[in-house]
Amino acid sequence: MTDPNAPRASGRLESPDWQLIRRLTLFEGLGSGMLERLLDPARVVCPGRGDQLFARGERAAWFYVVLMGWVKIFRTTAEGRESVVHVFTRGESFAEAAIFAGGDYPVSAIAATPARLLAVPADPFLAILEQEPRVARNMLAAMSRHLRELVMALEQLQAHSASQRLATFLLGLVSSEHEAADLHLPIDKGLIAARLGMKPETLSRALAALREEGLEISGERVHVPDVGHLRWIAGHTGDSAAP
Q1: Does residue 185 have a pLDDT over 60?
Q2: Domain around 98
Q3: Has this prediction a pTM greater than 0.85?
Q4: Residue 59 gets which letter from DSSP?
């Protein structure tokens, strides 16, 4: 029976996509044949900005890999306010924990920008893991290592100032080796704050601090006159703004 809520396919995996997928912790160490078998039922989907991928409380029938763009994971409070849990981008996966738990999605997800995603159906994926315990053990070990890495990254994040975190985020948008760079913020500032683990007002202070360091920031546009100096800021510990 066809799932009426299944994401609609709108493309196919290309060679760069496979290179990206093979680097994911979830698929670490898998041979090409097994990886292709696991992902054979998957489909590439291209939601537009604001398109919903799933809603909290729905059966967790798919998980996703971001091939391009940004996805917002959030919950709606009893008062109707939206609370952003996380923002995912290229090379990151989400909702796999929900399918392994075999329950419902604990959060909702929408495309924060036009995106290109790999949607992987839960049932055939889990069926293969039941048939291939070795692969399941490999995935559990990889996810365990990933969890330890996330804990270490969180500890490191807490040791970094707001300006450092923002500078590191901006460096991730620099696509050339030029001394200067003109950047476009890919998502709104509220989502950037959520991505960096800080409050919006803390982000505003971090932006002001970077302006004092020579960056020109106007709306979604950021001019970095000296990329080397931005790298120095990312590694400097002088800012003590609280998250």
Answers
A1: yes
A2: 15-157
A3: no
A4: B
